[in-house]
Structures are given as structure tokens and as C-alpha cells.
């Protein structure tokens, strides 16, 4: 066993909380993981983990060593990646997080996989506000204002959101002529997974409050809201990136155009202090080119 193997095992245990979970991740036996960590402690001359019946915890030395280990493994991965890039295509694992809109991001993911088959994508589709640094993501797509100084960002563009409904729904219930007309319509609203709050609709300053709209349905899925709007079940506030093809095909229409509208910035972000590997640079360029064509 070499020290790097022991370091990798130690980091896995610290991240996953048990020898068994680390063993599954490394595809070896728990006893092998235990031996690797014991050998590492012997070589360092200090105890890294407290082992008792209640579970595992890091010693003070273990806490200090863990931070160094992450840097060592990151640098080793970067060095391997740089050497492999000399031979040609980018390769290795890339852990990314994207908003939970499978219908939109599936073609993006598929296109990247086809063009760069040696890069292993580990994709987390979620609308929660993930912690890019602490959760170990290489890159995350973020919508809205950025406030985390630990992150570097590259813009994917500025996009519009509008109220939309199907022509069938509007034929049956009428087309709203003003914001106040929404009180008599079926409104499909979005709930933020992180805060539990309902997404506000950007009504103009007319004294009309968002709470005056009584939602017929509130959910945390953009795809579900899109589907319900297409099925003629109500009016939804949706990103143009998702609805533009349905508006072009006249399956959806924009409601209260130029009255209820919002623009948002979408960014690809990654940890500032993380080495920008060739695969990350390739992924960033691919995403920027993809979204530039969408605008």
C-alpha cells in the first residue's frame, strides 16, 4: 500500500462517515480500508480517527490532515489530467449540478457526452441551492444573483421569463387583459425547495400583490408545471428557454406580454481556489457555446 491510497481512503471515510460506505465507494472490503488507514496513521505517527461504538470522528490532527489531503488529491488529479491532455482529449470525472429540468438539460448532457466520451459526468439535477465548495462539485449552473465570494463565474446568458398558457385554456377561460384578471384564472405556481416559499410573479407597481393570486397547484418541478400548462390546466410563469419551442409551434401563448415579465442571469460557477482542469475548461466552453446559440 502507498500513502496516496491511504489518503484517498481516509478522505472517503471522512466524507461518507463509515468504513463500510468508503469501502463501497472504493470497491474494496471494509477490512482493507481499515488497514489502509491504520498504515497511514503508523506512517504519520498520529491518530487520525476516533473509533468507538457510537461511530467515527476525526481527531484534531485528523481535521488538519483532511484539509491537506484534499489539496493533495486535487493536485494529483490535476497533474494526471494535464498529462492525459497532452495525448489529446480531456478525460476524468466531472461532478456538476444543474436545475431540475430534465427535459431541457438532457440534450445538453447528451451532446457533451457524445463530443467528449472520455469525460465521466456525475450529474446532480436539483433545484436546491447546493454548496458548491462543501459538497465537492466541480461546476454548478446557477440562476440569479451570485453572492458567494468563493466562486468564479462565467455567464451563460440573460434570459426572459413569461406567463404562458395553452390556446385551448385561453379559449375556454378567456385571455387576461390586465394583472387583476388573473384573480379569476387557474394559476400554477412554483415552490422553492430550499426555502419552501412560493415564487413571486413580477407584477408591475400597481398595488396588486402576489398573494391575491390563488394557485390551483403549487409544486417544485418546472417540468410538471410546463406539462400542466401544455395540457391546458392553467397559467404558469416559465423560463423562455423551456417554452420558446412551444410558443413557436403555437402550443403555448405568452400571457400579459410586456406587463408580466422578468429577466434572469444564468451562470456556470466553480470554486475559485480549485485548479481549472482541462475537462472543466472544456465543459465550460461547451456550455457557453450551447447557450449562446439559444439566445
Structure description:
Helix 5 links the parallel strand 3 and strand 4. Strands 3, 4, 5, 6, 7, 8, 9, 10 and 11 form a nine-stranded mixed β-sheet that branches. The chain starts with a helix and ends with a helix. Helix 1 packs across helix 3 (30-44), helix 1 (3-16) packs across helix 4 and helix 2 crosses helix 3 (30-44). The protein is elongated and about 75 Å long. It contains nine helices and eleven strands. The chain has helices at residues 3-16, 19-26, 30-44, 60-86, 102-115, 167-173, 222-230, 240-248, 278-294, and strands at 49-52, 55-58, 92-98, 119-125, 139-143, 151-165, 187-190, 215-219, 235-239, 253-255, 261-271. By secondary structure, the protein is of the alpha/beta class. Helix content is 41%, strand content 24%.
In brief:
The chain is α/β, with parallel strands linked by helices and 295 residues long. 41% of the residues lie in helices and 24% in strands.
